[in-house]
Amino acid sequence: MKVVFVTSYGFNAQMRNFLEYILARLLVKNGATVLAFAKPEIGEKAFYELDGVRIYKPRSFVRGVWYLAGHIIFSRPDLIHVFNARNNRFGAPAAILAKILNIPLMFTEYGLLHDHYLVTDRDDPFPYVEKVQWDRPIMAFKKVFRDKNVIGNLRNYIFHLPMSLADKVIFVSKHNLEIARKLGLKDFQYLPYIFDEEIFKTGGAKDGDTERLSILKKYGGGNPILFVGQLKLRKGWDIILEAMPLIEKNLDARLIFITSGTDQETPELTKKIENLGIRNQVIFLGTAGVEVLRAAYKNCKMVIVPSRYEGFGLAVIEAWEMGKPVIASDVPAINEHVENNRNGILVPPKDSKKLAGAINLLLKNKTLGEKLVKNGTETLNELKSTPQKNKWLEFYGKPTS
After folding, report:
1. Using an 8 Å Cβ cutoff, are 204 and 289 in contact?
2. Cα dihedral angle (229, 204, 8, 91), rounded to 10 degrees?
């Protein structure tokens, strides 16, 4: 079986837990040949192989489309699977080629509320009934000419092309199903986000990791709590900062802050820290390699996921893998896996007081933390289980074990 994956980012050591990489590894282990297209990261090679997956990250759009077209035309894969519309510049060309050559096309979107055409506020899309514009996404070519904004409408149409042309749309979070129905999508389904035993496989060092490890060792005393996420408001970084002054002082809580895309605090982040007077409580590590990430999880007392919205919420899984309790926002898709007071603590989104209260509780209640970790591990083991993986193998038409 030959499969082509087309996605925005990933297929490197830092993004081992992205679904497309996990599925590619699963298919390769079951005898398939997988070629993955993705955007290049700084310093990465254009061609390389990881875990038996052939990966191409073209430096230019034209060169990428040329290679993609050549591979699909001459190799004739059994299936093309496009992941996510945002930042996926090869998704539309792959979808068009699939339709021309009559190759089955699959499309997976982590979170439909990430769609900037659909939602007026992607950082804070709830309640989505007030922030969704159902008629704005363009799924049919004739609608490109519905008003004078033809160029903008064409971009809109191309953005949604992999989803509108797909033979099957797969979501890994159930909250997308209702939204898909209201959008008028026809053939869509839910399949679980799965994991394997390679969540924290070694490799993927970043420049400055040695210094980051030294900082962790020097300043990571007391009761460190961990935030891992992009510096985007939907990740709720501002909420965890606002919660820090509300944590009981005698608990000596310190926030380990790991993000992506920058090794320096942004002006907005610095201003927030200074205004709250919590400079001595925040350990900013910026973008971290796998070894630093493992060390941060190992060293912390708990992991905080204060998101306003998530397509899935990988920090929860990473916490469970490292045996750490989780406090998270009660929002999709997090609350599909985190059950309050069973395998984590759920707090209302954007509520720094409730978040601080939950942190106080967990720092003082070791028994509760142990229970959350035990049940979180059980949940993660289910997501790693053979029956869950077989659902995907059956979907792809591969024999299951």
Report:
1. yes
2. -150
SS3 for 37-50, per residue?
ECCCCCCCCCEEEE
Q: Which pair of structure tokens corresponds to residue 139? A: 């799924």
SS3 302: strand
What CATH number has the domain spanning 209-383? 3.40.50.2000
Angle at alpha carbon of residue 340, lines to 376 and 247, rounded to 5°: 95
Q: Which amino acid is at 345?
A: I
CA distance 93 to 102: 14
Ranges of CATH 3.40.50.2000 domains, the chain: 2-198+385-396, 209-383
- C-beta neighbour count of 186 within 10 angstroms: 9
**What 3-state DSSP class applies to 152?**
helix
CATH tag, 2-198+385-396: 3.40.50.2000
The tally of CA atoms less than 13 A away on the side-chain side of residue 289 is: 13
Nearest to 41 by CA among 193, 260, 237: 260
363/244 Cα distance (integer angstroms): 13
Q: How far apart are CA 292 and CA 203, in angstroms?
A: 11
Number of H-type helices and E-type strands within the chain: 13, 14
Tens of pLDDT, residues 368-398: 999 999 999 999 999 999 999 999 999 999 7
Is pLDDT above 80 for 232? yes
220: tokens are 């990571």
Return the structure tokens found at 394: 């059956």
Residues 6+ apart with CB under 8 A from 342: 372, 375
* 153-182 residue pLDDT tens: 999 999 999 999 999 999 999 999 999 999
CA 67 to chain centre: 27
pLDDT at 15: 85
What distance in Å separates the CA atoms of residue 154 and residue 117, rounded to the nearest whole number? Answer: 12
Tallying the residues shown for the chain, one arrives at 401
Q: What share of the chain is helix, strand, coil (3-state, %, to 5)?
A: 45, 15, 40
